[in-house]
Amino acid sequence: MKKTKGAVEAEISKALTQWEKDFLGRGSVSVKTDILRDMIVITLRGILTPAEYSLCKTKEGALSIKRNRSDLVESGKEELKNIIFMITGEEAQTFHTDISTKSGERVMIFKLDSDLEKSFER
To answer: Which residue has the higher pLDDT, 31 or 49?
Structure first.
């Protein structure tokens, strides 16, 4: 039986939470995945530590946290793309990510070759 869009989104969220714990040492508070046309958009909330929030009070500190967190995730990019491939069977052509030092929220976007959302339509 073919998986539903919601089931695939939930599987990606679960796999990304596990990746965060294994690779970064801790997971986010919540993860939401949305498949939208040829993109997989993942929102991760609660990823900054109290110490990082404290550092983010200054512009220099915020830029430092943004840079460090971005470098960490970029270093695991191939593993992340592999997770997406294993779950969806689709190659991620590009990967984009950013973090808000105000809300402690990270957004990840995987751009695919084809329209994954269409594959769930009947």
So the answer is: 31
Q: Which fold has domain 5-112?
A: Threonyl-tRNA Synthetase; Chain A, domain 2 (3.30.980)
Please say whether the dihedral angle defined by the alpha carbons of residues 117, 35, 97 and 95, taken in this order, is positive or negative. negative
| Dist CA 44 CA 59 (whole Å) | 22
* Residue among 75, 80, 88 at smallest CA distance from 109: 80
> pTM of the full predicted structure?
0.90
Task: Give the confidence band of 116 by pLDDT, cuts at 50, 70, 90.
Answer: very high
Q: Where are the beta strands (DSSP E) in the chain?
A: 30-36, 39-45, 92-100, 105-112
- In whole angstroms, what is the distance from residue 86 CA to residue 71 CA? 24
In this structure, are residues 109 and 41 in contact, taking their beta carbons and an 8 Å threshold?
yes
Report d(CA 54, CA 75) in Å as an integer: 25
Q: Report d(CA 40, CA 35) in Å as an integer.
A: 5
Name residue, tokens 């009070």. 57
Domain spans of the chain? 5-112
